[in-house]
Amino acid sequence: MGFWTDRSVFVTGATGLLGSHLTRELVERGADVVCLVRDSVARSHFYNLGLDRKVAMVRGQLEDYPLLERAINEYECEAVFHLGAQTIVGTANRNPLATFEANVRGSYNLLEACRRNGKKVKRVVVASSDKAYGAQPRLPYDEDSPLTGRFPYDCSKSCTDLIAQSYFHAYQVPVCVTRCGNLYGAGDLNWNRLVPGTIRSALRGERPLVRSDGTFVRDYFYVEDAVAAYLELAENMDRPEIAGEAFNFSDDKPLSVLQMVDVILDACGRKDLEPVILGEASNEIPEQFLSSAKAHRLLGGWKPRFGMKEALPRAVAWYRGLLGL
Questions:
Q1: How distant, in Å, are the alpha carbons of 154, 179, 247, 255 from that of 289?
Q2: Angstrom distance (rounded) from CA 169 to CA 173
Q3: Looking at residues 53-80, what average pLDDT do you find?
Q4: What sections of 135-215 are H helices per DSSP?
Q5: Residue range 249-278: average pLDDT?
Q6: Do the Cβ atoms of 18 and 35 come closer than 8 Å?
Q7: What CATH architecture is 194-216+253-288+306-323?
Q8: What angle do CA 57, 58, 59 make, to 5 degrees?
Q9: What digits encode the pLDDT tens for the residues 152-184?
Q10: Of 38, 99, 141, 240, which residue has the fewest beta carbons closer than 10 angstroms?
Q11: Which residue has the higher pLDDT, 212 or 159?
Q12: Which of 75, 108, 133, 153 is catalytic?
């Protein structure tokens, strides 16, 4: 009998990269998982893993408050993982309104539904992002850095983060916030992201495209390590020094875009391919990376299980199978 056995858990964004891996782990640990699903993407990792046959699925979107309150109430959810969001920077730049509706309205809808069901809901983990910090004069970001997102996606995550903290301090909703770098791993079908796009190009023998000038510096965090971090955090939320807090999670090894492309090409065995530098990226911050010292200190010695040398080959093997290459 483990911590999650027979616990009713509500997951938003379950069909996404992190959501699919987290849902699988919760199912394997014996949880009764309820997933909010907006779109049915047949090739997504969620469906490929057959998770749609192992969880309760609620069809709808975060903007629908009555739906959220009904689902959390009727399924008597004790834990909530709020991962659902519009996560693509380029999409946010093209359509900020839809991004704000999903990320900001969606977050306060979800938190209000948790507040209204406070007798049942005992832990809520809200996914923010390193982007919530915006541009800072001091790096790496720690959890005391101000939230100053300026561009549409960054701003939406700053708002999500602050709203979550407000619900903890004003209403004692049991919330913690996570701020991660760029996640990668099996199941990411957003080909305009650096890791899946570069892997696909390399496996096809094509030169990978770099939207920026290649100098942007970021964290790259393996999705299975993120799942372990989320579960470790949720399991510790009864501790007073954990409840209401925000935590950075990363491998603390930032790389420039061109450095990351080089590592990916090496993992694919295609170091002969020269990236195409497009220099087209806009509304992005040159350097963003995190310190996860707080998580190491307070979460029982938590640390990533996989280094990039172990994680990237696992991801490449998955994409090779997906693409039949």
A1: 14, 11, 13, 9
A2: 8
A3: 98
A4: 152-171, 194-203
A5: 96
A6: no
A7: Alpha-Beta Complex (3.90)
A8: 110
A9: 999 999 999 999 999 999 999 999 999 999 999
A10: 240
A11: 159
A12: 153
* pLDDT at residue number 280: 85
Q: Where in the chain is the domain with CATH 3.40.50.720?
A: 8-184+221-251+294-298
CA distance 54 to 51: 5
pTM, entire model: 0.96
pLDDT at position 301, please?
A: 74
b/e 243-277 (16+ beta carbons within 10 angstroms → b): bbbbbbbbbbebbbbbebbebbbebbebeebebeb
103: tokens are: 């990320």
Q: Residue 111 is which amino acid?
A: L
User: What pLDDT band is residue 267 in, cutting at 50, 70 and 90?
Assistant: very high
Q: Does domain 8-184+221-251+294-298 have CATH number 3.40.50.620?
A: no
Please, which residues have CB within 8 angstroms of residue 259's CB and are 6 or more apart in sequence? none
> Residue holding tokens 């910090």?
133
Take residue 160 and report the two structure tokens written for it: 């999500």
Nearby residues of 1 by Cβ (< 8 Å), 6 or more positions away? none
- 208-242 burial, b at 16+ Cβ within 10 Å, e below that, comes to bbbbbebebbbbbbbbbbbbbbbbbbbbbbeeeeb
For residue 166, what are its two tokens? 């407000």
Number of residues that make up the chain: 325
Instruction: Tell me, yes or no, if 230 is annotated catalytic.
Output: no
For the beta carbon of residue 54, count every other beta carbon within 10 angstroms. Answer: 14
What are the residue ranges of CATH 3.90.25.10 in the chain? 194-216+253-288+306-323
How far is 36 from 61, CA to CA, in rounded Å? Answer: 7
Percent of residues, the chain, with pLDDT higher than 70: 100
The token duo for 277 is 């530098």
**End-to-end CA distance of the chain, in Å?**
41
CA distance 24 to 17: 11
pLDDT tens digits, 239-248: 999 999 999 9
